[in-house]
Description:
This protein has helices spanning about 15-35, 40-65, 70-95, 100-140. The protein has a single domain (about 5-150), classed as Four Helix Bundle (Hemerythrin (Met), subunit A) (Up-down Bundle), CATH 1.20.120.50. It is elongated. The chain contains four helices and no strands. By secondary structure, it is mainly α.
Amino acid sequence: MAINWTDDLNTGIDVIDQQHKRIVDFINHLETAQKAGNKEMIREVVNDCVDYTQSHFAFEESLQEEAGYQYCKPHKKVHELFIRRISEYQQRMDLGDDVGEELHQLLSRWLINHIKRDDADYVSAVKATMVSVIKEKEQKKEVGWFRRFFK
């Protein structure tokens, strides 16, 4: 079943929300590929999703580090465990296993839970730090690109 983005998935950090929406798009494309029975398309979507998700994780972790988020290391560990788990699916897929449906279910459940639980925990720390940076830059008239990250 396709994931529909709902307001309860918004973190309030625009750049993170846009990245999460892009991951949802990958998951929904995986469902389309699965329904079409197109193994090559499934492989492509999975590989693209994994690449994009790793970039997203790195960005998210850098925001947490910059904000001094106290649970940055455990959050990074959650990301690492997830990537390891997905890599196992990629290996199975490379061996010819039909993992599309199983992987779609895992990605759908994991992403929603991760956003609502793990990501929700760091948002206030990141926003508080970034808001003070924005205010400082506003006083210096240097706001630029940074403001667009927040609602």
